[in-house]
Design goal:
40% helix, 10-stranded mixed sheet, alpha/beta, D-Maltodextrin-Binding Protein, domain 2, 13 helices, 286 residues
Amino acid sequence: MTRPVAGSVVAILGFVIALAGCGGHDRPTAHVLYAGSLVNLMERQIGPGFAHASGDGYQGYGAASRAIANAIKADVKTGDVFVAASPSVNDTLTGRANGTWVRWYASFGTAPLVLAYSPSSRYADDLRTRRWVDVLTEPGIRVGITDPVLDPKGKLTVTALDAAQRAYGLPRTFASSVRDEASVFPEEDLLGRLQAGQLDVGFFYTSEAVPAHLRTVPLGRVHEAATYTVTVLERAADATAGIAFVRYLLTAARPALAAGGVQVQTPTLHGDRAAVPAALRTLLAG
């Protein structure tokens, strides 16, 4: 298993973006904590786009959604905005017992789960011509997943394998066998492992696969997807910049999201409407 160093690289890159063009003067900066599946979109498209359009700075940090939520609760990681890959992650930050970090959030898009493969894999031709569930049981195939405990994608992958077992009438050992044989990596590391040819296949969202130009196969009878949400965290250090970033994400960034593999939806409010900043209320349905 690799060390989760990629998140640090993302944080550094975001810091560099935040400083670019500031001319040595302090300026409002949106500190955005986001699901690692959005690294390419956030750091190459949305973060720089926001900084250019608003004049504010941007600093991003990407990792597994639940891992970020745990770090927020433990006061290990701070930010103004939190973008998660599952609505349920917000529940772990809601209420007094959880620090009341989240009082509302908006869902704004989905990204289907797909199986991506390395073009150099000896199983590449099989994945193009055979059922993916059959290829995953081949001896020696190197499968990569993320941690089901810390990452919604890892949890969704387990759900997808269980669903495939039922949908395709496979042996009862199919799902557990694939899980047991798979290598588990931090979300921010899995993509690099596949691209380096260290894995044959891995489970990804289209929001990762499209920007990275991965070769993918759909999951056939299985239909699982990430649901992306965003909120401005309570007690944000720079709530004004955070609000500006969320407004940009839900409006001007929609074409970039769509081009990057996110199925953009009308932003829908969950939670306490009275807690939503006034500048965002008109953007949220529900």
